[in-house]
Specification:
The chain has 517 residues and is mostly helical. The chain is 37% helix and 7% strand. The strands form four sheets. It has a two-stranded antiparallel ribbon with strand order 1-6. It has a two-stranded antiparallel sheet with strand order 2-3. A two-stranded antiparallel sheet has the order 4-5. It is globular. The protein starts with 40 loop residues before the first helix and ends in a 15-residue tail after the last helix.
Length: 517
């Protein structure tokens, strides 16, 4: 992804979306929307490179939407620094403080894809295979964006044409109300179908670009959501078929290598990072600041002679230093078995201890993220570990969830995950139980497997205990985060007041207080 195309910037203003601004390359207004740009295959390829680069730039938003509200992050600071985004973590979003910008900032990306589809479909200089591959990517990526919006807001405006980029559209004509959740879901499924049709049997080899198997994974995820959240039980069959069609991948024996080895055998689709190209610097916000760490903490709570820690993770070498603006709960760290290799590959634990009393008293229990720690080049740490969107472990655990929903034993899908975690010596192999017990077992593997991969919030919204999703608090399990009666509406996000102010056709998400007349 070393080649960048400077795509025209579309801003969200009056009527949610306005016409084109001038591009970053100072080409004429609407340059990418008119016929000047789409003249050869290199230009078309570069535009798609830009679409993927834009997706990578939105990595932290994907994490925010998919994980931040899932119960894994704490709202209690454990170092002398305040935590960020507590309003999101504590589900306190409002119309005035929605926590994220209009439609999570995804409408610009969707418009670019709409423009790409509009311009590429009629081109005659591309070979059929090339055009099909590019359109397979475009339809798959548009479905991926809209699936995030569906899970975040429910109904959203469905804009499937580049109308805001073509010519000089009237602001009023661009107003667009929120479509129903079912209409959005139908549009997502239709885009996935188009993506799969265009790809045919052509897979593609670059895991940093959307491929046939990425579309199959998305189809499995979408149809699983459709079955469990919307009650379309027949979609389980489609989900299973799509996931079973994804072949050729395998679990790595070393969990840490999944994130250290680029585009390895477990990875299906990933966001790539590289030195001197792009880094995932937000990882540094889950670490410790050396100035607030040196000589204060201990690794061992038992050994009275344990030395004080200085900088065990070499954060001082980081190109962007560490600071704990976000932190996972200590209870999540404790949930791992001591011999589960995912524990130390994901977290580094350390403790504040009062050595002046007998017995010594533990005053602070803290962890920082060690997953996605990047690499050290010339004594400087760079945050360059790729961020997987789909990998084999996800495929197996979705198949486990489908098997459980169908009333069959999910063990053949769960056990490989546990075997890898415990290096083939699982102290408590999975035993098929009740549907609820199995669902919790699957979720517990997912919560340990996918830390900082943007899945836990979506998981507790989709997965169920009895007839209710795990997102709701109950005595049956400890993973709920919302009161079903008083906070049920919070499974969806509010839109900011600026959204409906700029587009009067947009209504507030049901349940949230609004000043809209």
């Amino acid at each position: 992804m070393r080649k960048y195309i400077k795509i025209v910037v579309i801003t969200l203003s009056a009527c949610v979306l306005t016409a084109c601004n001038k591009s970053l390359d100072f080409v004429p207004e609407d340059y990418f929307a008119d016929g000047n740009y789409w003249q050869n295959e290199t230009q078309v390829n570069n535009f798609m490179v830009g679409v993927h680069s834009n997706l990578r730039a939105q990595q932290f938003m994907l994490f925010r939407l998919g994980e931040m509200r899932g119960g894994g992050l704490t709202n209690a600071a454990r170092m002398e620094v305040s935590l960020s985004e507590l309003g999101v973590i504590e589900h306190k979003m409002t119309e005035v403080s929605p926590g994220i910008g209009a439609w999570a900032g995804f409408m610009n990306s969707i418009l670019q894809i709409n423009l790409f589809i509009n311009k590429v479909e009629p081109l005659s200089f591309l070979s059929t295979d090339k055009k099909d591959m590019l359109l397979g990517q475009a339809y798959g990526l548009r479905a991926y964006y809209y699936f995030h919006l569906l899970r975040t807001y429910g109904g959203v405006p469905l804009r499937l044409s580049p109308d805001a980029l073509i010519g000089k559209p009237d602001a009023v004509s661009l107003r667009l109300a929120r479509s129903s959740e079912m209409d959005v879901l139908t549009a997502i499924k239709a885009d996935i179908a188009k993506s799969l049709t265009h790809f045919g049997t052509s897979q593609g080899s670059n895991k940093a670009y959307w491929t046939l198997n990425a579309s199959r994974m998305l189809k499995g995820e979408v149809f699983l959501w459709s079955a469990k959240v919307y009650g379309n039980i027949e979609d389980l069959t489609e989900a299973k078929s799509a996931l079973n069609a994804v072949t050729g991948y395998s679990l790595l024996s070393n969990f840490g290598d999944v994130f250290k080895q680029k585009k390895n055998a477990e990875i299906i689709f990933t966001l790539p990072y590289a030195f001197n190209e792009a880094e995932s610097a937000n990882v540094s916000l889950f670490l410790y600041p050396v100035a607030n760490f040196n000589g204060i903490y201990y690794k061992d709570t038992v050994d009275v002679n344990a030395p004080k820690l200085v900088d065990p993770l070499n954060i001082a070498q980081a190109s962007a230093g560490g600071i704990q603006r976000y932190a996972y709960t200590y209870e999540l760290f404790q949930s791992y078995g001591i011999h589960d290799q995912r524990r130390n590959a994901t977290f580094y634990d350390f403790y504040g201890i009062d050595r002046t009393v007998t017995p010594n008293k533990v005053t602070i229990r803290n962890t920082v993220l060690t997953k996605f720690m990047g690499t050290i080049n010339n004594n400087i740490r760079n945050w360059t570990d790729d961020w997987p969107i789909y990998r084999e472990a996800d495929r197996l655990l979705m198949l486990a969830e489908i098997a459980n929903a169908e009333g069959t034993d999910p063990g053949s899908f769960i056990q490989p995950i546990r075997n890898r975690a415990f290096n083939g010596a699982d102290p408590a192999p999975f035993v098929n139980g009740s549907k609820d017990a199995n669902e919790i077992a699957i979720f517990e593997e997912r919560m340990k497997e996918f830390v900082w991969e943007g899945k836990r919030w979506y998981d507790i919204r989709r997965m169920k205990f009895g007839s209710d999703p795990l997102v709701f608090k109950t005595s049956g399990h400890p993973y709920g985060v919302l009161n079903k009666v008083s906070e049920g509406y919070k499974v969806l996000w509010p839109v900011g007041r600026d959204v409906w102010t700029n587009d009067p056709l947009v209504d507030q998400t049901p349940g949230y207080e609004t000043t809209k007349p």
